[in-house]
Write a structure and sequence with these properties.
Elements: H1 7-10, H2 17-29, H3 36-43, H4 48-51, E1 54-59, E2 62-66, E3 72-77, E4 80-84, H5 92-108, E5 139-143, H6 149-152, H7 155-161, H8 170-173, E6 182-186, H9 187-195, E7 206-208, E8 212-214, E9 224-228, E10 238-242, E11 247-255, H10 270-283, E12 295-300, H11 306-328, H12 333-339, H13 346-349, H14 358-371
Helix pairs in contact: 5-7, 10-11, 11-14, 12-14
């Protein structure tokens, strides 16, 4: 069964649409198609597995992969692939196929070539056009923005398909030195995954315990920062900032389809989510009337900008304050749920079925405020 997305619900807001459209139209002008289904029909691609997911261009080298249980942010360029989250375990094969298809198509038009310095004098006279391109580099880094399964499920398969390059002659002198992609996360993600019995091969390989972690060198032409947001949807949440592209991967702090999935058992809280959203708003720079500017990739749903984050933050602040007032009146969690403090927003973000319902969200807000 092919999973598709409705373009009407996944397009950025009006003023930010030209940014994504410009990238898409530029690639389409060269014969490029980013939808896996169309590519599979044209060239056979990597089979139907890649056709079940869709790429959405964000800005520069940064793309958003939709359909794997959670949005996956990817920086794809000459240095290889940098992934933020890995989706559900059951979607690993399709994610790998989709990444490979995107690289193949970008590489066909020279989008992954390393820029060479200009030559002068006689050196330029014998240069001939080059119609072939070196094979694209593999997945090199993976970031988990939390320990929740829809963000870490594909770790084992995607990391095994990637490569960590060793320095010096290590790879040539130690036969078994080759390892997969590095998996980066806050150390609380590692603790939670170990406690849950995750396979060793799926665990983060590099963790940090301070406020932020910077990739040691530029990757695909830009700096990348991981910033820890304590006690948000879990106690190991991070946001990822691509400085050159001006894109923020927000993880589960921002969900354009539902109320945030706060896991109190894993250290989550409503106040932590609000702190994270305020951090994103402080970091982002909007264009005219808060449209466009810094683009934010949510954990689920369409691409967002500062206006979306501000609306989401304000909504959660109102709900938090209403639940707090009901707690101060001595109400139980069942009574608070019956009061429906989310009523004004249920048409857009509420749900009575599925993995995360409105009632579960209200209970999580209640518990996190009571425990504080």
């Amino acid at each position: 069964m092919t999973t598709r997305i409705d373009r009407r619900t996944t397009q950025p807001r009006a003023a930010s649409w030209p940014l994504a459209a410009a990238v898409a139209l530029a690639l389409l002008a060269g014969g490029f198609t980013w939808t896996g289904d169309a590519y599979a029909q044209r060239s056979g691609g990597r089979g139907e597995s890649a056709a079940e997911l869709d790429w959405w261009p964000v800005r520069e080298n940064v793309w958003m992969l939709v359909g794997a249980g959670a949005n996956i942010t990817a920086s794809v360029g000459p240095d290889g692939v940098f992934l933020v989250n890995t989706g559900r375990e059951s979607d690993s094969e399709r994610v790998l196929a989709a990444v490979g298809d995107l690289q193949d198509q970008l590489n066909a038009f020279g989008k992954l070539d390393v820029a060479l310095p200009e030559r002068g004098g006689a050196e330029t006279r014998s240069r001939m056009p080059i119609n072939s391109h070196p094979p694209p580099k593999p997945i090199r880094y993976i970031v988990n923005t939390s320990s929740l399964p829809h963000n870490t499920g594909g770790n084992e398969a995607l990391a095994a398909a990637g490569v960590t390059y060793s320095g010096g002659n290590v790879a040539g002198t130690i036969a078994d030195s080759a390892v997969g992609a590095a998996v980066l996360a806050h150390e609380n993600v590692l603790v939670r995954m170990v406690s849950a019995g995750a396979p060793f091969e799926a665990l983060p390989t590099d963790t940090f315990f301070v406020d932020e972690y910077k990739l040691s060198t530029f990757f695909n032409g830009e700096g990348i920062r991981l910033v820890h947001i304590p006690a948000a949807t879990t106690d190991g949440d991070s946001v990822v900032y691509f400085r050159g592209s001006d894109v923020i991967a927000a993880g589960d702090l921002l969900d354009m389809e539902s109320f945030p999935r706060i896991d109190v058992e894993r250290g989550g809280s409503i106040d932590g989510v609000l702190e994270g959203l305020n951090y994103i708003l402080n970091l982002a720079i909007p264009e005219f009337r808060t449209e466009g500017g810094t683009m934010i990739v949510p954990g689920h749903g369409r691409l967002a900008d500062s206006a979306d984050v501000g609306y989401y933050r304000d909504m959660l602040t109102i709900i938090r304050d209403q639940v707090q007032a009901l707690i101060e009146r001595g109400m139980t969690v069942q009574q608070v749920v019956a009061e429906r403090p989310t009523f004004g927003y249920e048409g857009r973000f509420g749900s009575d079925t599925g993995e995360w319902t409105t009632e579960m969200f209200i209970e999580a807000v209640y518990r996190s405020l009571k425990e504080e």
